[in-house]
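Anyone? Bumping this.
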Amino acid sequence: MSVSFLISQAKSVQKVIDEHSAEIEVLDQKIGDGDHIFNIQRGLKLVVELEDSIKDLPLAKALNMIAMKVLSGIGGSSGALFGTFFMTMAKSPDLDKDVDFIKACEMVISGIQAMKDRGKADVGEKTMMDVLIPVSEKLNELKNESEFKSGLNEVIKIAEERMLSTKDMLATKGRASFLGERAKGHIDPGARSSQLIIDTICKSVINN
Amino acid sequence: MKKFINNNDDFLKESLTGFGKAHSDIINVNLDPSFVSRKNKTKDGKVSLISGGGSGHEPMHGGFVGHGMLDAACPGFVFSAPTPDQMQAAAEHVDSGAGVLFIVKNYSGDIMNFQMGAEMYSGKNDSIVTNDDVAVEDSTFTTGRRGVAATVLVEKIVGSLAEHGGSLEECKKLGEKVNKNAGTMGVAFTSCTVPAAGKPTFDIGDDEMEFGVGIHGEPGRKREKIQPSKTIVGNILEAILDNLKPEKNEKNLLFVNGMGGTPLTELYLVYEDACQILQSKGVQVTKSLVGNYCTSLEMQGASITLLKCDDDILKHWDAPVHTAALRWGM
């Protein structure tokens, strides 16, 4: 993981999210309050715009700037959760040394754990954590394998399955939780956007 | 979408700036990070009250900044929780050393961002969470009830206690009592349109209403055909009374809140219906508030809040207040 990797991933994710914005907006209007896609898009735009200010910085500083930008520029649940994710990654030890695949996995795993603690949501509650927690568990298995690239295909598959599994769940966290039974039958918008992010980044790592 | 808007990116900034100019005698508006604060510095020894939430519920919360109510309010984007740096900056700006009480509506984004703001603020602080909406029950399917219109009552009543020298602990305790003594439920006839979305949040037929709607247009208990006002008000009150179970000799405050698009003539009609129904059930109404205070952009609809009042609550309700949206006694 490097600053240029973060910037190029942010750009790719921005493109994919923009392509799916209408779909995510509709999902959020069905069971949320319609702000999720705008928050995610605003956050990505802010991060992409940071390019010039972070490209020559050490990784820890760049991650920290991304965290503060996400935290102060997005709002809503997404801002707090993704801000927490980057802030935790920025606090990882030894970021001044080479960050290899194993180290990057550990950073993502600790970031997702911090999101779980912040949102107090676990698997099965119809939120983005339904995608992120199983992805984190899979990364934990993968980090010790030599053939990690093929393992990332499994991560992509898990993210998609778990995203789809939110469709028949009752929500107990987030704004959809206020709907009870009526939230059933719709994929959680946060689970969809998180799955798209995982999908984009994993594919790019596999292809490089 | 037909709205007074120049471009979406500047929507909130332009509105806040106008708000600041219109009420420059009582408040200041700070931008980047944005917060509304009182024009005068917090007196030494007075606990500071800070609330906030997504924009689109005006006059809540900026309209309640001023003597006898809030010290500061942090507006997020429309229907999105504000960010931790706003809460931190507002707290640093208003705290006179007696501590800060954050008043937070029970929505996950607000809870998380206020928590982070409180962690980032180094001074003494505590928080209360309002959850007065009885439309969605506390059950295995929900994390709890939503915080809606009773937040206005909490801000007014705790604001008076803080003004009268109440400690941080006392302010928190009174706020929790007011929240526990209050029940709210709303109904919507039309949707609202978030400016960034440009189209209505939900579809609803000309002859339909959303019963138990939330303040972002999020669905409530059920979608049904529209009924005469007396029937709607009766159903709302039944849900509230089931929950609050006021005693016969207890005094109550009845608050009819407009969602933004319903004229006052209809809100007063709702108030009259509610008074008659409550009287027939032996529920005493001694205080009133009618108007658009906790809105949902241009949504047509209303919510009713009933607050059970003891002498302490009544005293602080009647105490002087001078804000952009509520003013009496001074």
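Late reply, but here is one note on the structure posted above: The longest strand of chain B covers residues 301-309.
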